[in-house]
Design brief:
Largest sheet: 5 strands, parallel
Distance between the termini: 9 Å
Radius of gyration: 18 Å
CATH architecture: 3-Layer(aba) Sandwich
Helix content: 40-55%
Number of helices: 9
Strand order of the largest sheet: 2-3-1-4-5
Strand content: 5-15%
Number of domains: 1
Shape: globular
Number of strands: 5
Length: 226
């Protein structure tokens, strides 16, 4: 199998790229989706979050209040506390799923979509580089890039959908997007740690062409990897 890490900052379009790769036959694992499953009531991750952050992050129906948790994590500077609970369990689940897929399809291309692939301090294999834990998890890294203003506009559109935000709401969302981007490593720094770059400041058609070209290289590598 070929293990591919697909990353990019908030609003970069990495999820769109992941969908395009899936159309070619890649197995796509979304880190956020796996984490959400692990954060359901009764799961060990859920219990650890409630123990650390208190019942104030739990809704009346027992589900985690993701807005309250995000405020504590990002606005109150406790994001690493949350990551230390969620990331190890999420990475372990990714590894287990990849092993299952590889047993069924040895030449599979498995793409893990993760916004914080470089940022996480967790996941280094035994004897691996603790300063670059992703190196032991993936055979190559694909980075989707975009300028910050484009990322912020995409974030606002994702949150609001077809309903234009009020000026006050727009200002609030812009501030939230900038806070989240500030928690992430800048694209310029990520590029030096990546094997392939997918610039995504343009149209969907342009991204589709780039994904098609890259898929051919990934497919060749997967079929010729021992």
């Amino acid at each position: 199998m070929l293990r591919v890490g697909l990353t990019g900052g908030l609003g970069s379009g990495k999820s769109t790229a992941a969908l395009l790769f899936a159309q070619y036959g890649a197995y796509v694992l979304q880190a956020d989706e796996i984490a959400r499953d692990l954060m359901q009531p009764g799961e060990a991750v859920y219990n650890a979050i409630v123990h650390r952050f208190g019942r104030g992050v739990v809704q009346q129906d027992g589900q985690l209040d993701r807005q309250a948790l995000a405020k504590i994590a990002f606005a109150d500077g406790r994001v690493e506390e949350l990551n230390a609970i969620v990331h190890p369990a999420t990475i372990a689940e990714q590894a287990a799923i990849m092993t299952e897929i590889a047993e069924e399809e040895p030449a599979a291309i498995i793409i893990v979509e993760s916004a914080l692939l470089f940022e996480t301090k967790h996941g280094a294999a035994a004897g691996g580089d603790p300063d670059a834990p992703w190196r032991s998890r993936f055979d190559c890294i694909v980075l989707v890039t975009a300028n910050d203003e484009t990322k912020i506009e995409r974030y606002i559109q994702r949150v609001c959908g077809d309903t234009p935000p009020t000026p006050e709401r727009r200002q609030e969302l812009e501030a939230e997007a900038r806070r989240r981007l500030a928690q992430q490593i800048p694209d310029a720094e990520k590029e030096s740690m990546s094997d392939f770059i997918l610039p995504n400041d343009g149209t969907l058609e342009e991204l589709e062409e780039l994904v098609e070209e890259l898929w051919e290289m990934l497919d060749f590598a997967a079929r010729n990897t021992p």
